[in-house]
Amino acid sequence: MIKKVAVLTSGGDAPGMNAAIRSVVLAAHHYKLQTIGFYSGYNGLIEDSSTPLTPASVNGIIHRGGTILKSARCPAMHTEQGLKLAAATLEKEEVDALIVIGGDGSFNGLLALNQHWTGRIIGIPGTIDNDIDGTDFTIGFSTAVNTGIEAIDKIRDTAEAFERIFIVELMGRRSGHITFNVGIACAAEQILSFENFSQDDEQEKLSHLAKEISRAQQNRHASYIIVIAENLWRGGATELARQLKETANIDCTACILGYIQRGGSPVAKDRILATKMGVAAVQELIAGNDKVMIGERNNQLLTVPLAVAVLHKEKVSENLVSAQENILALTAQ
Ligand code: F6P
Fold first, then answer.
1. Closest ligand 1 atom to 261 CA
2. Residue 28 CA, distance from chain mean position
3. Average pLDDT value for the chain
4. Mutate which of 9, 106, 129 for ligand 1 pocket (most atoms within 8 A of beta carbon)
5. Known catalytic residue: 104?
6. Atom of ligand 1 nearest to the CA of 172
7. Are 4-140+266-309 and 142-262 the same fold in CATH?
């Protein structure tokens, strides 16, 4: 029987992580389980740094970005020694089950830890990147998309006023969920992402972009926005702007949105998703489930084996990519 549950947030923080912590704590309290939170991701396990969590300690956090438990990437979890230290802390604190809110790297850490510790493990997908297989949405993605949209709408105003070309770089590590969704929602003239472009085609893409921009300028298009996924173009948005100037004498302003996409108050969708997933995580533990991630497909909560969730990346909707490639990009002049 489970008596004590631990929770931690790991990897890139995502808006809605606090809502998930709150929901885990409230559900655990409801089922008469004790809860503790470990600080700073897996570092809290390695250093035995934790705090008891009660309904009072999660009061007034649902709307806050970041995570009250703090987060971190933890290289020590890639070592035997780190894993053993983490397992020893869980034993010492008499934890029966560990819930990790994070991305696929955090879930790999959880599976590795489970080789040294026999308690139960559950994952809740929390990352702005939305790249985890087994769930339509991860906690934080919707807020990051909205933040990107708000920022680019503002960039559009100045781009219109100055008739400027902007290249805006968005986060997502190696997946284009944020870039594609923001690009579509901002009517970006060009979307450059992993789903529609390969680095081998850089030269071809460069001349294509130069032609498209010139065509738009002839049509007196007042502004022109290219959104680009981080880690895609060698040298990023700044290098692409430099190359357009060098090869076609086109002036572009590069703008890297960066960490503003990780911060801010979670939008309704993230608060609600996080709350549902937190409750489900505790209920799965009560039901005897183990080594699973909570996901949601077509508005239905489900569980996915953690080992399966980390195998593949969730793909960007083909409808979105195809609409952009075959219709929207061709008509944006
Ligand atoms: O995974 C979330 C994320 O913000 C990615 O979009 C980005 O590539 C990465 O984290 C940056 O990580 P860090 O803050 O560790 O450099």
1. 4
2. 26
3. 96
4. 129
5. no
6. 6
7. yes
**Token pair 């600080």: residue:** 39
What is the full DSSP assignment across 180-233?
A: HHHHHHTT-SEEE-TTT--GGGHHHHHHHHHHHHHHHHHTT-S-EEEEEETTTS
The answer on pLDDT for 191 being more than 90 is: yes
Average pLDDT over residues 35-44: 98
CATH number for the 142-262 domain, one of 3.40.50.460, 3.40.50.720, 3.40.47.10, 2.102.10.10?
3.40.50.460
User: Domain 4-140+266-309, what architecture?
Assistant: 3-Layer(aba) Sandwich (3.40)
Parse the chain into domains and list their residue ranges: 4-140+266-309, 142-262
Task: Read off the pLDDT of each residue in 238-243 and give the average, rounded to a whole number.
Answer: 98
Cα of 128 to ligand 1 centre, how many Å? 9
**pLDDT at residue 268, as a whole number:** 98
Q: Which atom of ligand 1 is nearest to the CA of 178?
A: 6
Which one is catalytic: 48, 96, 104, 129?
129
Q: Would you state the pLDDT for residue 332?
A: 59
> 299: phi > 0 → left, psi -120 to 50 → alpha, else beta; which?
left
State the pLDDT at residue 29.
98
Bridge-based pairing state of the strands 300-305 and 292-297: antiparallel
pLDDT per residue as tens digits for the range 93-130: 999 999 999 999 999 999 999 999 999 999 999 999 99
Reported pTM: 0.97
Nearest-angstrom CA–CA distance, 116 and 9: 20
Whether 333 shows a pLDDT value over 60: the answer reads: no
